[in-house]
Specification:
The protein contains nine helices and 15 strands. By secondary structure, the chain is an alpha+beta fold. The chain folds into two domains: 3-245, 4-Layer Sandwich (Deoxyribonuclease I, Chain A); 258-374, no CATH class. The longest helix is centred in the last third of the chain and has 47 residues, at 286-332.
Length: 375
C-alpha cells in the first residue's frame, strides 16, 4: 500500500502527578488549553471510576477519555484529551491497572493509533516494569500509523538520558525488544542522537522518562519541553507528519481463519460445496473443476468470516453499553455489588480486546514473513 503524507499533528504528553485536587485540576486544564497541541496524553492522574464523569465534564475543549485502575488506590490513571473539532477518538483497549489506554483517532484525512502508558516506577517495581512492556504488544499493534507515548519510568541510555550519567543501570530489555519488533523509533533520539535533555527532575537526579515512539514512515519535525509548576515532569510536545494510506488497493495472499472451521454449520456447508463439485460433470477439465471449487470455498469462507466478525462486534457493543449503564449505577449507588459487576464486565471486554489484538498481531507477523519471502 502506497503512502502519502497527511497534515501535521502536535501531540503533548504530561505526567501530572495527581489531579484529585480540584483547584490543581482546574489550573492544569487551563494550562493545557493554552498550549499548542491537538492531542494531550496525561499520566498519573489518580482518577477513579467515581470521578471520571465529573472530570470529563470539566474538560470543555473537546472529547476526553479517562481510564482508572479497578483498585481503590491513589496511583496510576491515564487520560487522552482532544482540542480539535476535526478529530474524533474511539477507545479500543485498556488494562485493569489504569496504566494503558489505546485509542484510534480519526480525522478527515487520516486514521492513527495512539497508546498512552504509565509504566510502573521505582526500584521496587523493576520486575513489574520488565513484565509491563512484555505484555504491551496487544495494545500497540495497528495497521495504521502508530504513536506509543507516555511516562516509561525507565531509560534506554543511562549515559545520555540520566544525570548524573551512569553505566550500571540495567537497560529495559523488554522495552527495547518491543520497539525493535514493532519497528518503533524514539522521536527525540532520532532528531538528536547525542544531545542531553531531561523530562523528570528529582532533587539529586534528572532523567528522560517521558518519550514518544513512532513508525519510520512518520516525519518527526520538532520537540518542545515545557517546565510547569504542577509536576516534577516536563510537559513535552511532538510535532509530526503522519502518513495516511492512499486508495490504491494491493492484492494479498488468500488466508484461511481456522476459527471458522470450528462452526458446525460452516463445516456442513463446506462439505456440501466440495462434494457437489467433485461429483459434478460440468467442468471441461480437472483444472477447471479445482478452480471452480476453490472459488466457491473462498466465497463461503469470506461470508462466514464476515458473519463471525459482525457477531463479535455486536457482542462487544452490547458489553460496552452494559458497562456504561453499570458505571451510571455506580455513580448513583456506589456499593460493593455494583463495583463487582462493573469490574466483571470491564474484564470481559478487556479480555476480548486483547484476544482480538493478539490475532491481529499474528496476522501482521505473517504478512511480514510473506513480504520477506516475496523480496
Amino acid at each position: 500500500m502506497s503512502l502519502s503524507v497527511a497534515v501535521d499533528i502536535i501531540i503533548a504528553s504530561y505526567n501530572v502527578n495527581g489531579l484529585r485536587d480540584q483547584v490543581k485540576r482546574n489550573a492544569v486544564f487551563h494550562l493545557l488549553g493554552t498550549i499548542n497541541a491537538q492531542i494531550i496524553l496525561l499520566q498519573e492522574t489518580h482518577s477513579s471510576i467515581l470521578n471520571q464523569h465529573i472530570w470529563q465534564n470539566e474538560w470543555s475543549l473537546g472529547q476526553s477519555l479517562f481510564h482508572s485502575t479497578t483498585k481503590d488506590t491513589n496511583t496510576s490513571g491515564v487520560t487522552i484529551l482532544l482540542k480539535s473539532k476535526h478529530l474524533y477518538m474511539k477507545s479500543i483497549a485498556n488494562d485493569l491497572n489504569g496504566r494503558v489506554l489505546t485509542v484510534n483517532v480519526f480525522s478527515n484525512n487520516q486514521n492513527f493509533h495512539i497508546t498512552n502508558i504509565y509504566a510502573p516506577s521505582g526500584k521496587r517495581n523493576r520486575t513489574q516494569n520488565h513484565y509491563f512492556f512484555e505484555y504491551l504488544y496487544p495494545y500497540i499493534y495497528s495497521k495504521n500509523p502508530l504513536i506509543l507515548a507516555g511516562d516509561f519510568n525507565c531509560i534506554e541510555n543511562p549515559l545520555l538520558d540520566k544525570y548524573p550519567p551512569t553505566k550500571t543501570d540495567p537497560k529495559p530489555q523488554t522495552l527495547i525488544t518491543l520497539t525493535t519488533n514493532l519497528n518503533l523509533y524514539d522521536t527525540y533520539r532520532t532528531l538528536h542522537p547525542t544531545q542531553t535533555t531531561y523530562t523528570h527532575h528529582a532533587p539529586n537526579s534528572q532523567s528522560r522518562l517521558d518519550r514518544f515512539y513512532v513508525n519510520p514512515t512518520s516525519i518527526i519535525q520538532n520537540h518542545v519541553f515545557i517546565l510547569t509548576p504542577f509536576s516534577d515532569h516536563d510537559l513535552i510536545t511532538l510535532s509530526i507528519a503522519l502518513p495516511s494510506p492512499t486508495n490504491h488497493k494491493t492484492s494479498h495472499p488468500w488466508k484461511n481463519n481456522i476459527n471458522t472451521y470450528k462452526i458446525i454449520d460452516h463445516q456442513t456447508q463446506l462439505s456440501n460445496v466440495i462434494n457437489n463439485e467433485i461429483q459434478s460433470d460440468n467442468h471441461s477439465s480437472p483444472l477447471q473443476k479445482w478452480l471452480t471449487t476453490k472459488n466457491k470455498i473462498r466465497i463461503l469462507l469470506k461470508t462466514q468470516a464476515r458473519n463471525v466478525a459482525r457477531q463479535k462486534t455486536l457482542e462487544n457493543i452490547k458489553t460496552q453499553q452494559k458497562l456504561y449503564k453499570l458505571r451510571d449505577t455506580i455513580t448513583a449507588n456506589p456499593n460493593t455489588e455494583n463495583f463487582k459487576n462493573c469490574n466483571s464486565y470491564r474484564k470481559h471486554l478487556h479480555d476480548q480486546f486483547l484476544k482480538d489484538a493478539r490475532c491481529n498481531l499474528l496476522k501482521h507477523k505473517a504478512d511480514l514473513e510473506e513480504s520477506k519471502i516475496s523480496l
